[in-house]
Amino acid sequence: MFKTKHTFRRVGVYALVYFLLAGTIILNIRSSYKNKTREYSQQQANEFIIGMQSTLHHYRLLADDYYQIIAKDTVLLNLLCSSVDLDLLQKLQAREAAALRLHPVKAGAEKYHFNCVNLYYNNHLTFVRLYNPELMDYNAGIAPSLVSKSNETQSIVEGFETGPASAGFRFVYPLFLHQKHCGCLELGVDFIGLRESLKNIFPFEFRFLINKNLLLSKTPFNKLDNFKLSDLSEDYVYEKSSLQHFEKDTSRQRVDQRLIIEFNKQLRKEISHDLQTKEIFGHSATIDGVDIFALFIKIYSPDKNDEAFIIIYSNDSTAAGFYRSYLRESLVISILILLLILLVAYAIDRHKQVKIKNQELEKQAQQLSDLNQTKDKFFSVIAHDLRNPFHGLVGLTQVLVEDFDSMEPEKVRKFHNLIYQSAKQGYQLVLNLLEWIRSQTGRINFSPERLDLSKIISDNIKLAKSTAQNKDISLINLVEPGLIVFADYNMIHTVIRNLISNAIKFSNPGGKVFIEGQKEDGQIVIKVKDEGVGMDSETMKNLFRIDVAQSSRGTSGESGTGLGLILCKEFITRHDGKILVESQKGEGSTFTIILPAFI
After folding, report:
1. For residues 149 and 124, is the Cβ–Cβ distance under 8 A?
2. Are 275 and 216 in contact (CB under 8 A)?
3. pLDDT digits (tens, 9 = 90+) for 67-83
4. pLDDT in tens, 412-452
5. pLDDT < 50 regions, the chain
6. CA dist 521 to 126, 478, 515, 517, 525, Å?
7. Domains of the chain, first to last
8. Which long-range contacts (CB under 8 A, 24 or more apart) does 412-419 make?
């Protein structure tokens, strides 16, 4: 569980590093892409502005020519000056006469796309409108305008303006009769005419966006139906007349109208935002496999009161190439960083694995060294204690061999008994040693089964009875009849044998050994209790440690190594059980075995 959490945490760290690193680099690439697009847009805008200035200069020269004609027409000027205070009928007659005199100018102006030829009184009211006669009573002074500025300054004024009928570029000239200012002449070209002239210079398609709020402040109510909301922003509108003209004119169309509509639809959100914050910007997209670049340039009236955007659409793959390069570089960088993170993660993981393996090897080497030292010490104790019974056997048998004929039968019987006890002690030592070696080498099979514990204990009491009788020790069986345990027979048998043998060994002659067995709280509890010599706390602490195993003698001089208790500890641990000891010096010991009850 901990390893899984650690793995998830490590993967999370690697993912965080990847996203931070890749994100930072991709943001830099994106910033570079935007800078390139911005620089390209500015470059294209500069080129376009030069061409548009040239076009407007051409219109200015034409307007100057028309102005010279009108400024010299004293009859026309006299009509303008004298009709300001006439009644409605007389003023209408004066307007008709003036319109006739302007007819030659109108014919020439139409040839060069001038759709605005107007005369104004010096009080900003309209005198003559060759186009849109329904606006004959329009007052150009209701809002700041080029006409009002020209009348006020009696000077030539020019620039972009949103007029009552249409938006476009206007040229306004002051008119004088006998050096008396009597009004002004307004000549203008709308977006239709401007587009026609620009398309002679640039292989582009054009659209014009007019600020909605400014339009509403200047345009009469009956003229508002000439405009429609744009598909790019609710704050800007198109002129219907110019838009319809653009859509119908396919003679020199460079970008398909359908592609422009789809382009605007896809990039509406980005363009709408930039319309509010920027004056020159560009966007690119690939529509139906065609690369389109749209350049937006903001234009103002001289007093900054009017504003609009000129949109230049072109089949230009340069900006789209910047975007494709950005996507390509972002993808490559993402893959490279991912590979780098994976390589680093692999290297770190391998380094950790090698480090862990080395630590494990060092630990195992240390454990092996400690184990070898422990076993060497332990075997030296075993070898010493094995010599004792064999020394007794050799000594006793030597006496029997040399003095048998002269020995009394009772003495021979005593010697035989001593030989038997020495052989039995040696056998017990060898038996425990073999069991321990088998457990250490993994050659003991662990095969737990349902066993009658009371029978196993009874059998071991019978085996130990003769040894107990030699010391006049009573073995008292207090095990519940029919007590069942789930355990390995050989292991449990060895444990019970060793505990009973130890209890007899360290009991004083005439003493008692109690063997108890019962089921408590779902566990099997076995106790072997003696009234012998007991142990101090230091001895109990090291009782089950092989590295401090020491020989110890029983109350009748019986030898021992402590190996039997070590075996008991290992075998009970294999059963997921516990072995406990309670003892006091001079008051005996109690060994308690606790085994899980699986029944």
Report:
1. no
2. no
3. 999 999 999 999 999 99
4. 777 777 677 667 666 666 666 666 566 555 556 788 889 89
5. 1-2, 381, 384, 599
6. 114, 19, 19, 13, 10
7. 12-316 (3.30.450.20), 448-596 (3.30.565.10)
8. 418/392, 419/392, 419/393
